[in-house]
Amino acid sequence: MTHISTDLTTAYxxxxxxxxxxxxxxxxxxxxxxxxxNAMLGLPGDGDYRDAAGTDLRNYGGPDGLxxxxxxMGELLGIPTDQLLALDTTSLPLMHEVLxxxxxxxxxxxxxxxxxxxxxxxxxxxxxxxxxxxxxEALGIRMIAVPFTDTGLDLDTIRSLVANDPSIxxxxxxxxxxxxxxxxxxxxxxxxxxAMPTAADDFRIMWDNAYAVHHLTDDPxxxxxxxxxxxAAGHPDRPIVFASTSKVTFAGxxxxxxxxxxxxxxxxxxxxxxxxIGPDKLNQLRHVRFFGDAAGVVAHMAKxxxxxxxxxxxxxxxxxxxxxxxxxxxRPRGGYFISLDAGDGVxxxxxxxxxxxxxxxxxxxxxxxxxxxxxxxxxxxxxxxxSLDELRAGIDGLCTCVLLAQQxxxxx
Length: 412
Ligand code: PLP
Known about the structure:
By secondary structure, the protein is an alpha/beta fold. It has helices at 6-17, 31-35, 67-77, 92-105, 130-139, 155-164, 187-195, 226-232, 262-273, 281-291, 294-323, 347-356, 388-411; strands at 22-24, 84-88, 121-126, 142-147, 168-173, 204-208, 239-244, 256-259, 328-329, 338-341, 359-361, 378-381. It has a seven-stranded mixed sheet, sandwiched between helices. Strands 9-10-12 form a three-stranded antiparallel sheet, covered by helices on one side.
């Protein structure tokens, strides 16, 4: 039986005695990042309310969103303007709406409402994004977790599940700098996903490209033309693309986009038009004025990177110093998260110890459907929001908790 080192119990007692109060739970932009977009608060400005075509944007109408902004985002996402709608201020409501419409009415070229499908299910590569899973849970869509392998998606399992089970109507993907692993899909993986035979003809991929422009290196991962590849593979309607400016300009006060095949877009437009007479086009105009063009977005994201990179480097450095050899973690090239594998049966206890010490991290199990991490090993780290000093103190303290939880388990 292993004993718990007194050094570690002392270190933990000292940590608790410090009375920290640190919140590392969610991947929010920091105040300095939000400051980068402050100039937008004065836009479009008194008297500026017409788009390039001369339309008065103060009024109802323009249900697809501002063409100029859709063109800018379309260029960045590789989607033609007429296949990309700017409908809301964030993207999660669009994902929710798509699934509600699919359940109530069915999707284009489908066999009717998904609510009529016995045990309607979605594949969820894990670890993944908790809010995707929350949408499925809220709408009664059963989730089937498919763990990532060491090299990426478990395509063999995914292919075999979708080929044989017609109740599986879709899957979640965060194709670039995924939440929480930072993993980006390869072209080969995307080709496989859009081409694979599925028992359900109306299988959909919820392609949440939330981090398409959120690079942390000089050598960005590519935006893969999923709509083009899907059309070439004979499944043009399979992917539905989502994106937003939540972590570009203002979280909650940005613009949410949805893209897809002409059939999917017509279907989404129809459902959304029952809900609203038009989006906030003045906010969209503000974004157009602020960015100017796609190059303006890229330049703006370089400023985010300058703020985020030191945060990520600090976390990775502390993990390296404190946990090398006893845990593993991802080294993202973009996005907002690092995923720490603390070892089997360790995450819940380490997170509880951290909470006792005043360090809040994302709940154990959150990156898994139904909050169930079968190995109880994954801890999602969100480096963006705290100040660098708070982040260092929080991650260092968490490492103490991981080590203690590991030793407690070994001693049990
Ligand atoms: N998708 C992913 C993968 C995310 O990580 C997040 C936020 O953390 C969102 C979507 C939220 O997007 P929005 O603010 O556009 O609803």
